[in-house]
Amino acid sequence: MNVFGDRELNLICGAVVYLSFLQAEKATTSIANRNVILICFICSNLLIEIEITLIHKVKSTGLRLKVQGSRCPTFNLEPSTFNFLISFAEQKMDRNDTIHTDIFNVDSAAFEEMALHVFRYQYANTTFYRKYCDSLHIDPVNINRLEKIPFLPIQFFKSATITAGDFEPQVIFESSGTTGSINSRHLLKDTGIYEESFLKAFRLFYGDVQDWCIIGLLPSYLERKSSSLVYMVNELIKRSGHDSSGFYLYEHQQLQDTLLANEASGQKTLLIGVTYALLDFAAGHQMKLNNTVVMETGGMKGRREELTRAEVQGILKEKLGLTRVHSEYGMTELLSQAYSLGEGIFKCPPWMKMLLRAEDDPFELTIPENMTIGSKGGVTNIVDLANLYSCSFIATDDIGKLYRNGDFEISGRLDNSDIRGCGLMIT
């Protein structure tokens, strides 16, 4: 099968729509309507602004098609070619039905193509994102590379409803924020996508969740009902099936007893906690942990003096007898997480990618594959394909370093940006 670029696809779509109506007088109405539905579908996915008006005449049926400044092309195609184009449109329709599955099966070679497909879908369906792109005078037909995709500033999750289409959300996640701040809101059409994202990522980095005892030390988050982090950890706790898995608020002695019992039995344990809570626990309960992974999610929330990540991890290593401290990078606006298995260097799952933008030029983007040096600093942009029903292309306020292999570090935040509940420390 031939592989077509956007320009060729636009011409193909116009040709098929045109020919379907030319053949309408020789075809049944149902077949003609079916062809039009298929082609309108593929045209909308290719982001062609199309206005169709049927002109009924005595002896023929015509079509007036408006395609962003170009005229509907007229081609004289053989029936076999026409049938192929209809088949091609049907495959595109099938692909949109399976995009959810495709996202979590994507590999590095297919990432850009999938990202472009998601961009087209969200331009057509996420009203606020489309308006943002239009305000930048972006012609979506010209978006043919990953670095050309517009990234939505993350602050808009505080002031706008960012959804692909109209739906009743199964859950609304809100950022923790600080006193007097406006929280970000992420409306989820399907919690199953979020669950699939974090469960597949966990398996990728840590193996079968049933092998682990999962303990959450998230006091400030657990006290809220709209935390995406609590949702994730709670689901991991349930799926682990271990009797000692669970949340802790301030029961530090009970937590120490559980950790020591798991150490004695050789049980693998994941202690995932907000940074200030882990530091509070470690300060009064020194021990040696061999079978326990301690994972910090960031966040001091004004509870303690701000420390660098190196300082935080140094304290935890000393107090808890650890050789390394793991980290999770996630936020309310994302449905995927990156993980660091030590030293603050994060890796993304295959359906997530970190890019950099220049601090003084938001449209100057760097992707790992195009880097000629080992690492580069800048402000981070994130592609999260799991954000299918909101926006997958987010310009964050985090400052970081991107490595040529796609790994990254987070070193701080832009001046005047809000302090995040899950925000990471300044280096």
Key features of this structure:
13 helices, single chain, disordered N terminus, seven-stranded mixed sheet, 427 residues, alpha/beta, globular
The radius of gyration over CA amounts to 25 Å
Separation, N- and C-terminal Cα atoms: 52 Å
Number of helices: 13
How does the overall form come out from the CA principal axes? Answer: globular
The neighbouring-strand order within the major sheet is 8-7-9-10-11-12-13
**How much helix is in the residues?**
25-40%
The quaternary organization reads as single chain
How much of the sequence lies in strands comes to 15-25%
The secondary structure category is alpha/beta
Structural commentary:
There is one protein chain. This protein is an alpha/beta fold and 427 residues long. It contains 13 helices and 18 strands. It has a seven-stranded mixed sheet with strand order 8-7-9-10-11-12-13, with helices on both faces. Strands 4, 14, 15, 16, 17 and 18 form a six-stranded mixed sheet that branches. A three-stranded antiparallel sheet has the order 1-2-3, with helices on one face. It starts with 5 loop residues before the first helix and ends in a 14-residue tail after the last strand.
Strand and helix layout:
Layout (H helix, E strand, L loop, with lengths): L5 H17 L6 H17 L4 E7 L4 E7 L2 E2 L7 H19 L1 H5 L7 H15 L1 H9 L16 E2 L2 H4 L11 E4 L10 E4 L2 H16 L6 E5 L1 H4 L5 H13 L5 E3 L3 H14 L3 E5 L1 H10 L7 E5 L12 H12 L5 E4 L8 E3 L5 E2 L4 E7 L2 E6 L8 E10 L8 E11 L4 E6 L14
Parallel strand pairs: 4-17, 7-8, 7-9, 9-10, 10-11
Antiparallel strand pairs: 1-2, 2-3, 5-6, 11-12, 12-13, 14-15, 14-16, 16-17, 17-18
Helix pairs in contact: 1-2, 1-3, 2-3, 5-6, 12-13
